[in-house]
Design goal:
252 residues; alpha+beta; 4 helices; 27% helix; binds 2-amino-4-trifluoromethylsulfanyl-butyric acid; binds cobalt (II) ion
Length: 252
């Protein structure tokens, strides 16, 4: 069942989202060759705590960190560790926060120093695919319109979407209905309406779409070892239109 949120609930989710948006603005400067993913996670944990919020991930099904940090062929759910970032890596950081009982969830892929043109293109296409999906998140459209927009944009650029993991409703819990696949057909699935809050999150592989989970039980990697990128925003449908809750719009 999809939980419709009131304006005041959406304001609260937006407060959580704002923390993630600000965190992402600041974390960029900390992503440098030689930094470990655990150092980044510690910084993220401190940032969330300073804002009076808590990580939505730590303890979720036993997850042991405040964020997920996934490098290169790691798609999502990478566990922060003593792995040092190197020049040319790409690093996907996924953060969920809970404030006053309300959750927001977002992710971005960052370059480490100077990266190849191919990796830069993968990041750009994944980010754009997210915005293509968000554009379809309007009252009257259906979930499949979001899914199709993402898949067709990605495949037009000769990359593949991961089919084993999905976007989701968010707000009163980290994961709510509906499930939002990054592939599908227009005019299919649940109808979208005002008050829905959705975490849309394309995971895009440079090579084949197949992924597997490492023996740590969390880290999802591409089977072919090629890089993957991930962008996610939490959005609300207000007055029929998508409003991004995890991004700072200039002047706001
Ligand atoms: N951010 C992920 C998602 O979008 C959830 C991470 S799983 C966790 O669904 F265990 F790390 F929390
Ligand atoms: Co999510």
């Amino acid at each position: 069942m999809i939980r419709i949120k009131s304006r005041s609930q959406i304001k609260l989710i937006e407060k959580s989202g704002r923390i993630i948006a600000e965190l992402f603005e600041e974390v960029q400067d900390r992503i440098k060759p030689g930094t470990t993913t655990l150092q980044i996670d510690r910084w993220i944990g401190e940032f969330i705590k300073k804002r009076g919020a808590i990580s939505a991930f730590r303890g979720y099904r036993g997850y042991p960190a405040d964020s997920c940090i996934s490098v290169n062929e790691e798609v999502v759910h990478g566990i922060p560790s003593n792995r040092k970032l190197k020049e040319g890596d790409i690093v996907s950081i996924d953060v969920g926060v809970k404030l006053n009982g309300y959750y927001a969830d977002a992710a971005r892929t960052f370059p480490v120093g100077k990266i190849s043109l191919e990796k830069a293109r993968l990041i750009r296409v994944t980010r754009e695919a997210l915005y293509e999906g968000i554009r379809q998140a309007r009252a009257g459209n259906r979930i499949g319109d979001i899914s199709f927009a993402i898949q067709s944009y990605v495949e037009r650029h000769n990359y593949s979407v991961v089919k084993d993991l999905f976007g989701h409703g968010v707000g009163e819990a980290l994961h709510e209905d509906p499930v939002i696949p990054n592939f599908g057909w227009p005019k299919t699935g649940e109808r979208l309406r005002d008050g829905m809050v959705l975490a849309i999150e394309p995971m895009v592989n440079q090579g084949r779409d197949k992924v597997k989970v490492l023996p740590d039980g969390w880290t999802v990697v591409t089977e072919d070892g090629k890089p993957s990128a991930h962008f996610e925003h939490s959005i609300a449908i207000i007055d029929g239109e998508p409003k991004i809750l995890t991004e700072i719009i200039d002047g706001e």
